[in-house]
Design brief:
With 286 residues, the protein is an alpha/beta fold. It contains 10 helices and 10 strands.
């Protein structure tokens, strides 16, 4: 049976509806049943409102309900406008946390992938000033396990772990997080699966991954992973929520209200998100 993929349109005032339809018309998608979820009537392109935010929220709720009921096999989400969503009662930092809550999942993480580079994040939506005090060996191990499971579904295994500080702490001269937090986590991970190496200097690790030395990089904070990913694969990056009972992917960009309806929004990231969702739906978790 062909996998059933639900596609939320995101904020209908943004580019979500047009990139979803462009992807479906591209001829670049694998065989699957694709279901568009969300309403676009009554909304003006480029003009986000509380009503458009409510429509985006309703689409997410419908997608979660369908996936949990087994009526769709994977969810691909269009971009939402978080500030407007918060105004209509959306109580989550982002869509990642929304789906985790609806699934009752505590063990989840954010991953991004594109053009041969894959990154997973140990900490996500917190201020940079708070990263070091929130970094825990247990969290590195937890996210590392989720990352290893995702890679196994793709026939991959080699994971590099990034340091937190410049030059991975320079043996403690530039910070001790690598010695006291990250290295013990790597030791624990390798007792489970001997595929983790590091901590490596963040200024070279992504180049090495793109060159094929590693299959993924485990990153300590949000922008450590997203800056190189978006620099390398801006138009084809995909966001993946790890740990859910069904695959959830999304294009790695925002609503782009300023270009909505102008016919210039690019669909490559949505196409990549749909292709990955189909692949994950067809490949059972190990």
């Amino acid at each position: 049976m062909r996998p059933r993929i639900g596609i939320t349109l995101g904020d209908p005032a943004g580019i979500g509806p047009e990139i979803a339809r462009a992807a479906l018309d591209s001829g670049k998608l694998p065989e699957a049943e694709y279901l568009l979820i969300g309403q676009t009537d009554g909304h003006s392109l480029g003009q986000p409102t509380l009503a458009s935010a409510r429509a985006a929220h309703a689409a997410l709720e419908e997608a979660a309900t369908l996936a949990l009921a087994g009526e769709i096999d994977a969810v691909v989400t269009g971009p939402i406008h978080k500030a407007r969503m918060y105004e209509v009662g959306f109580q989550f930092p982002g869509q990642t946390e929304f789906f985790a809550a609806r699934c009752g999942v505590k063990d989840f993480a954010m991953l991004l992938t594109g053009a041969g580079l894959t990154v997973a994040l140990v900490t996500t939506h917190i201020p940079l000033a708070d990263v070091a005090k929130n970094l825990r060996s247990t969290e590195i191990v937890r996210v590392g396990r989720l990352l290893a499971t995702f890679l196994a579904r793709r026939g991959q295994s080699r994971i590099a772990v990034a340091g937190l500080n410049p030059h991975a702490g320079e043996s403690g001269a530039l910070g001790r997080e690598e010695i006291e937090i990250i290295a013990p986590a790597i030791e624990e991970l390798n007792r489970l699966s001997p595929n983790f190496v590091g901590p490596h200097s963040p200024d070279t690790i992504f180049h090495r991954a793109v060159e094929g030395e590693f299959d993924a990089v485990l990153c300590m904070y949000h922008d450590q992973g997203l800056i190189p990913l978006k620099l390398h694969a801006f138009h084809e990056g995909v966001n993946v929520t790890l740990g859910l009972p069904f695959p959830r992917t999304s294009p790695d960009h925002g609503t782009a209200f300023e270009i909505a309806g102008r016919g210039i929004a690019r669909a490559e990231s949505m196409i990549a998100a749909l292709r990955l969702a189909v692949s994950l739906a067809e490949t059972p978790a190990p």
